């Protein structure tokens, strides 16, 4: 009887050792794969970000925050990814490292914020990337929203088109009122990228290709303009993730190869490896637009803007939505920015905002 127990113990040890070897080998394969793929990416070195204080860094320690930028660039070369172009879409991706839940927040491109590195200079947030590239864009988000974002990924139209085409397109519900503008933007995307596509001639749920999807993401002349457009952008990302979850690995690999030359990022090989290790754990939780409560503000020099009503109220709601912090108190710096922006726009806030999570 004792011998049998010893024998079972040996087999358990052997099995555990084999399991460890398998895990190590799998991790090694993933590492080599990522190393090969990272060679295709346009990577920025010495990327430096700032936060308003150390306390908020501690509060967000259990989260990985990444800024996604979709660039409105007529020049589709990799050089256009670095700076000089406005960000057509700005999405904050926050990953709960414990649960794997992912939340996305689209910052409306016309949102009036104080631009980082400029004293008391406010304008539409999408200008930050044009003025100072991804570093200024990320620091602008951190400074105005009390966030600790230290990584970014930027992609242009061509990269998005090639990724969607590689997975065989995505399913999107097209409304009647969107058709005219959709086809106008399809023509514009074709002219910019040189990638041909048919138009879309009927409404309803349908499979659309990369050019059509990129055009769909750019429609801003229906409903609430930029606010509705960000909903479409998040819809496209969700549709891509849904399609990729069901796709064969060969299609996913093809999409990665096709899009990476049009990607610019601060995430290095180690960072990508850390994200890849947890990929099976990730779950798309929810997405929303920011600011939650807003007012429209017109300026002769800045055009038609979206004013957070107020910045402090919206930052409190943002931290509740992303990090489940009750009664968050904005930093002294955000409170100063809140006063400056409210005095400019007349949006002084009101009742507590419920972010809806």
Summarize the structure.
The chain has 357 residues and is of the alpha/beta class.
Second rung of CATH, namely the architecture of the largest domain: 2-Layer Sandwich
Radius of gyration: 23 Å
Query: How large is the count of helical segments?
Result: 11
Strand residue content: 15-25%
- The total number of structural domains is 3
Query: CATH topology of the largest domain, anyone?
Result: Nucleotidyltransferase, domain 5
Counting DSSP E segments of at least 2 residues, the number of strands comes to: 13
* Biggest beta sheet summary: 7 strands, mixed
Query: Could you tell me how far the N terminus lies from the C terminus, measured between alpha carbons in angstroms?
Result: 57 Å
DSSP helix fraction: 40-55%
- The general outline is globular
The CATH class designation of the largest domain is Alpha Beta
Provide the succession of SSEs.
HEHEEEEEHEHEHEHHHEHEEEHH
Lateral strand order in the biggest sheet: 1-10-7-2-3-4-11
Q: Poorly predicted ranges (pLDDT <50, ≥5 residues)?
A: none
- Judged by helices, strands and strand pairing, the structural class is alpha/beta
Q: Mean of the pLDDT scores? A: 87
């Amino acid at each position: 009887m004792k011998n049998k127990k010893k024998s079972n113990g040996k087999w358990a040890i052997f099995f555990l050792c084999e399991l460890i070897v398998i895990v190590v080998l799998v991790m090694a394969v993933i590492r080599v794969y990522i190393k090969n793929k990272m060679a295709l990416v346009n990577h920025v070195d010495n990327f430096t970000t700032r936060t308003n204080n150390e306390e908020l860094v501690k509060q967000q320690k259990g989260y990985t925050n990444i800024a996604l930028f979709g660039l409105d660039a007529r020049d589709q070369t990799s050089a256009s990814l670095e700076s000089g172009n406005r960000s057509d879409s700005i999405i904050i991706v926050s990953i709960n490292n414990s649960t794997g839940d992912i939340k996305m927040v689209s910052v409306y491109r016309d949102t009036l914020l104080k631009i980082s590195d400029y004293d008391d200079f406010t304008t539409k947030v999408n200008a930050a990337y044009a003025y100072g590239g991804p570093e200024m864009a990320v620091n602008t988000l951190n400074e105005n929203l009390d966030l600790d974002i230290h990584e970014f990924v930027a992609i242009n139209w061509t990269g998005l088109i090639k990724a969607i085409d590689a997975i065989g397109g995505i399913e999107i519900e097209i409304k009647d009122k969107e058709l005219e503008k959709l086809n106008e933007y399809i023509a514009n995307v074709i002219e910019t990228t040189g990638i041909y596509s048919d138009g879309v001639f009927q409404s309803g749920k349908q499979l659309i290709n990369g050019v059509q999807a990129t055009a769909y993401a750019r429609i801003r002349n229906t409903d609430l303009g930029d606010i509705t457009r960000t909903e479409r952008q998040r819809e496209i990302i969700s549709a891509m993730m849904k399609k990729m979850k069901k796709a064969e690995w060969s299609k996913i690999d093809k999409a990665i190869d096709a899009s990476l030359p049009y990607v610019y990022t601060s995430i290095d090989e180690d960072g990508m490896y850390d994200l890849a290790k947890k990929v099976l754990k990730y779950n798309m939780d929810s997405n929303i637009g920011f600011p939650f409560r807003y007012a429209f503000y017109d300026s002769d020099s800045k055009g038609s803007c979206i004013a957070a009503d107020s910045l402090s109220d919206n930052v409190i709601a943002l931290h509740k939505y992303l990090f489940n912090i009750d009664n968050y108190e904005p930093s002294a710096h955000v409170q100063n920015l809140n006063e400056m922006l409210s005095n400019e726009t007349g949006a002084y806030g009101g009742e507590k905002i419920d972010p809806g999570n």
